[in-house]
Amino acid sequence: MTTLDMDFVRQQFPAFAEPSLHDKAFFENAGGSYLCRQVLEKFDQYFHQLKVQPYYPNPVSAKAGEWMDASYQALAPWLNSAPDEIYFGPSTSQNTYVLANAVMGWLQPGDEIVVTNQDHEANSGVWRRLAERGIVVKEWSVNPVNGMLELDTLQPLLTKATKLLTFPHCSNILGHINPVADICALARRHDVRTIVDGVSFAGHGLPDVKALGCDIYLFSLYKVFGPHLGVMVIQSDMASKLANQGHYFNGEFREKRLYPAGPDHAQVAAAKGVADYFAAVYQHHFPDQPEASATQKAEAVRELLHQAELTTLQPLLEFLNQHPAIRIIGPASAAQRAPTVSITVNGVLPADLAKQLGEEGLLCGAGHFYSCRLLEAMDINPAVGVVRFSMVHNSSPAEIERLIATLARLLPA
């Protein structure tokens, strides 16, 4: 089996060569990842050469538009979607606000939607507010012991009036990966549309959206080594149900219908760098398989990233599991989870531990991470929160060893 070449990968991220960061280990990828050089180079070229209004009939403007168009084309194969199913927006939080308005061209008072209390608030609060507009909102609640969403508690919530189900691909606190395809299949049998928040999953390998079977898939490019944009992958028949949220005269332009403020041209153009990075990873690791299909290339890269993440996740979980003062919030094993690991420590405030680790050059986060409802359901005070270590494939085994050694020193058994 081919394994990830960590030296090659880390060379693609300028932050790892930045002198001011040389003694720092980054464990807050779930909040936003380092940018790959392919994205930074796109930004640099765009701002130097193409910082004009795109799509006007002159060579420079036309080229700026071509660069923007290329991002849709380049990202599509890594998502197993069509380019015209991809929509950009300022962030996933803002995209959900736009979607919550757009669905009101389809939903009617009395229709039901189902939300969860496992989500980041971006994919929960906006949908709950539709109750103010006559929509019946139901909650698919987590198991309060382990924070999991269980299929047998979803089934009773789905009725003939249910139109929409929103839920996360992966919790940004638990790290557990929900069985999205199974959930979407159940919803589809009840003629219920699905919106999946993939923000906490996509940084671990862009998913095959078609295989998931959802109607809308959301993620944030700045957590996938790219610019600060949100991405929506919307199936065409679902897109037809969404009301135009742009200026009335832009309703016929697909790219503008769900982007009310107008796009950030440079960021859209730089988004292609994310696809270029994944292509570089594939070419480096599989130079003798250039004729593989786009689907095969995407799957090969996903597997590379997954195996690399397991290498770092497993020893960290083993250490945390054996420490008597530490509680892992989420699955204790590496099965069906992303390398996003949240903990509480007896007698230690999360913010204090994060500060201590930061002083040691280990950069992690503490707080509720916008998942207050989940913490409340699990009887954890959101104002106190948890400590979170979130790795991706470019996190090295040496960094994990350093984290474990530091925790062992700061938190003696």
Automatic annotation (TrEMBL):
UniProt cross-references to InterPro entries, sorted A to Z: Aminotrans_V_dom (IPR000192)
Key words, A-Z: Aminotransferase, Pyridoxal phosphate, Transferase
The Aminotransferase class V domain, residue ranges: 26-403
Family matches, as Pfam families: Aminotran_5
Gene Ontology MF terms in the entry: transaminase activity
Cleavable signal peptide: none
The protein's name: Aminotransferase class V-fold PLP-dependent enzyme
Organism from which the protein derives: Vibrio ostreae
